[in-house]
Amino acid sequence: MDKAALVAADPNDAVAIAGGGGSFASLRAYGWALADTPRRLARRAFAATAAGEEMSRVRARSGHRMARALRWWDLVGLGLGGMVGAGVFVTTGRATRLYAGPGVVVSYAIAGLCALLSAFCYTEFAVDMPVAGGAFSYLRVTFGEFAAFLTGANLIMEYVLSNAAVARSFTAYLGTAVGVDAPSKWRIPVPGLPEGFNQVDLVAVGVILLVSVCICYSTKESSLLNLFLTGVHVAFILFIIAMGFKFGDARNLTHAADPSNHPGGFFPHGAAGVFDGAAAVYLSYIGYDAVSTMAEEVERPHRDIPAGVSGSVVVVTALYCLMAASMSTLLPYDAIDLEAPFSGAFRGMVGKEWVSNVIGAGASLGILTSLMVAMLGQARYLCVIGRSGVMPAWLARVNPRTATPVNASAFLGLFTAALALFTDLDVLLNLVSIGTLFVFYMVANAVVYRRYVGDSGDTDHHHHHKWTKAWPTLAFLAGVSLSAITFTLVWQLAPTGGAGKAVLLAACAAAVMATVAVFQALVPQARAPGAWGVPGMPWVPSASVFLNVFLLGSLDPPSYVRFGIFSAAAVVVYVFYSVHASFDAEEGGGGGDGAKVQDVV
């Protein structure tokens, strides 16, 4: 939409804005704003910023610029620090015992491949547009404000919940390090609260608040601190892997502890168990997403970001697979401790109790690094969402003394601590996986759309011409998603055995490949990638879309209910608050000082 259209605004808007506070100046002004909601939604929901605006005027709303001091090894360190800890220590035991058995090694490899394909999509955006907003900014320049807001809300949810889950597991590992059964001794049961929300964990709250204080006072040396901690942590992981292979028994890879009740074999629950396990351990790869939020602070984005993001995913996948293999040799899969699988494995061995204590201490360290990196990332996301005008502008403020987004860090720290106080691990983990997969799915679609249609800054001259260019790409993306959904439904619902299921699955896979091949042959790319582009376009992002949809299908129904409720809540916030705040920012009346003026393209 062009600037001229803004002049013909409804008189109510002028009255509201004249009040000095835009739509929220008074109840009367807010009433006018609500009455005008349909028109505002039509204007703002699909309004996208140009990439240049996102990097210049939008970024300037935070005040102080962030120093470009990070190199590729800093990014690999941040990726390792962010990913390792949350994934292995929290989810491996659960995925092994409940879903995949020793085949969890393959689950990690599949989830790692899926993460690497998504990492390529993130990397193209981050190199072209090195800002702190990650997926929020990428979708804002591609699909517009509403898609970005919905994704941003899911990203914040994903970070807050994964941090709460990790902090609760910190309690279990710290207890192991000092020889206390922490889940029963340090968590306080509260009668009257529903199951899953009735164990109060004060240690988890303490560690979240401590990390929040640290990141509010972080300096440019924080990356060096992370590199040191991550180096110690990787050395500790290699120690675990070596101990597992030294004291383990290869028979545990194929034999259950209780054969009468649990099937044996390397894949006790078959291929379905392996893919269910892959969806469950996908939480392990949230960390590289936090690395993409550091793009604004990278010295040479076109060189450092591809090596840092993809490199960290490859290294972490290799570590995870080795670690899962060493754990599977230590104990039969049906004897693994769900809360603290690695230290629990050594606890029962005569003369090896000290290893359990060392593992507890090391895991506690790893959980601290992953919490710190994730909380750095979530604060930058919320800061950029504040810059965009869809959330209060005070969230975007960067403290001039510490050069950190203190408001966003403190707000999210308190929110995370409140969740970690009551909520059980299982409730948190399922919800996190679905949010992660949804965000990665959206970014994979966005990278195809931007390459074949161009972003808003390239195509805003003729609205009709833009949609003429866009429909083949949108139809293609819808076709890939529908084929993936069909494949997933057949996989989940069709009866096993017989050739019918295999034929249907092969037909769905062939349909996807044919769709991609036809699209590649018939539709030219509208823009060349900048310094770095996703290889194998459009095959790699299409594979990422397909894998993310498939892994989404492996999650349980309650996850979808919770995800639906949260997304609906995000839509309500957008309709009743964000669209009006954004509209005021666009008109220049809501911010008072004009600092939130936003272009509509």
UniProtKB/TrEMBL annotation:
Organism of origin: Digitaria exilis
Subcellular localization(s) per the UniProt record: Membrane
Alphabetical list of InterPro entries matching this protein: AA/rel_permease1, CAT_C
Transmembrane feature ranges: 72-93, 105-125, 137-157, 196-217, 224-245, 265-288, 309-333, 358-383, 404-422, 428-449, 470-491, 503-523, 530-553, 559-577
A matching Pfam family: AA_permease_2
Keywords recorded for this protein, A-Z: Membrane, Transmembrane, Transmembrane helix
Membrane topology: Multi-pass membrane protein
Protein name (record): Cationic amino acid transporter C-terminal domain-containing protein
Domain Cationic amino acid transporter C-terminal: 532-582
Molecular function GO terms recorded: amino acid transmembrane transporter activity
Family: Belongs to the amino acid-polyamine-organocation (APC) superfamily. Cationic amino acid transporter (CAT) (TC 2.A.3.3) family.
Gene Ontology CC entries for this record: plasma membrane
Main location: membrane
